Amino acid sequence: MNLDKLKTTDDIDVAGKRVIVRADLNVPIKNGKVTDATRLERVLPGVKALADRGAKVIVISHFGRPKSGPEAELSLKPIAEAMQKLLGRPVAFGEDCIGDAAAATVSGLKNGDVALLENLRFHKGEEKNDPKFAQELAKLGDIFVGDAFSCAHRAHASTEGITNYLPSFAGPLLMEEINALRTALEKPQRPTAAVVGGAKVSTKIPVLTNLVAKVDKLIIGGGMANTFLQAMGVMVGKSLAEPEFAGTARDIMTEAKAKGCEIILPVDVVIACEFKEGAAHEVVTLENVPFDAMILDVGPKSVERTASVIENSNTLLWNGPLGAFEISPFGEGTFALARAAAKLTKAGKLVSVAGGGDTVAALNAAGVTDDFTYVSTAGGAFLEWLEGKELPGVAALAREKVH
Ligand code: AMP
């Protein structure tokens, strides 16, 4: 995949064209009302820009996981209403994303109008990447704009299949995300550091393997650090750990050494005997973890050490918390390192790119999300990018096709 081949609609005339925009409108909804419009607020400027240039904009998205066919509570209708408010112009709603209802909605659009079509996943063809369904979607437009990076790890009809039938372009939000990730991973300013935390080694083996080949320092925290420590002979008591992955951890350490990547593990830890808010806790060195205790966070010396690694780096990638951050006080290690990274970024000394659901929640809890260079809300797609995988929804946009 040659990402330099990605084209945007900037250089083409979209006036009068029917432009299908694949967005990710999976926003939280309660009692028919959007409760957090962040995702909408991010994608709408691109929609508005197309409409202002005279395009007839047709927005498509999936929403939730319908089991088989339409489900009232998974309708995108409330989102059309929220879009209307945020855009300050009418948004036509198509009761279906293909067929007569969709065609009627689209044919009613004038230049500069916006429509939203019903949940793509009400049709099985979407997730199956059925060519017939992709063609049905493509019939509604003249060009396609992929602007849902968070869905790009799935080869679905609306992310991949449709690009076989329409001239396809990368949307502004997708470009922003890709540019941020490339800055951090493909053409970074060295030295580079990565923080990988979270619960288990087993879910992040490809991430760790890819990163040791790419970054200069790899800081490992969270439950997964316990597995690495255990593999080195540290007694971790009742901590979350995966002894069956000790061999994998050792392989990753060997690989890191061969690639010149330094792995940084905790040197002190916060332990508790109970996994609950405000549990009695203590900071201990690695030799002193009692058999009946759990490691729930990294200790202050570890934070100091990792903060100094970041201070000596120019680029930082972050995925996963260093401890059980949702339960006070076991978020302190994550928050302290996040604050240190935010401060360096604000001072112009660090490019910091973070992503993943829990990471965003941890950065929000630390109050530093806005101070990072880029925070990706894409979970699966962000992780697959870190794994070095080709994302089908991005590759399809970068491929040269004759239509
Ligand atoms: P992941 O989804 O793999 O990024 O894991 C995130 C989860 O790991 C969060 O819910 C954290 O509470 C949890 N976690 C991080 N460190 C620990 C730890 N030392 N012990 C137990 N859970 C942890």
CATH arch. level architecture of the largest domain = 3-Layer(aba) Sandwich
Say which molecules are bound, naming each kind only once.
Answer: adenosine monophosphate
For the report, how would you describe the main beta sheet?
Answer: 6 strands, parallel
**Beta-strand share of residues:** 15-25%
General description of the model:
This protein has 2 domains: 3-172, Phosphoglycerate kinase, N-terminal domain (Rossmann fold, 3-Layer(aba) Sandwich); 188-386, 3-Layer(aba) Sandwich (Rossmann fold). It is 36% helix and 17% strand. The chain contains 14 helices and 17 strands. A 6-stranded parallel sheet has the order 5-6-4-1-7-8, with helices on both faces. A 6-stranded parallel sheet has the order 11-10-9-15-16-17, with helices on both faces. The chain has a 3-stranded antiparallel sheet with strand order 13-12-14. A hairpin with an 8-residue loop joins strand 12 (268-272) and strand 13. The protein is elongated and about 70 Å long. Residues 198-200, 203, 222-223, 240, 295-296, 320-321, 323-326, 358 line the site of adenosine monophosphate.
Compact overview of the structure:
The protein is an alpha/beta fold and 403 residues long.
Characteristics:
2 domains, about 15% strand, Rossmann fold, elongated, about 400 residues, binds adenosine monophosphate, 14 helices, six-stranded parallel beta sheet, alpha/beta
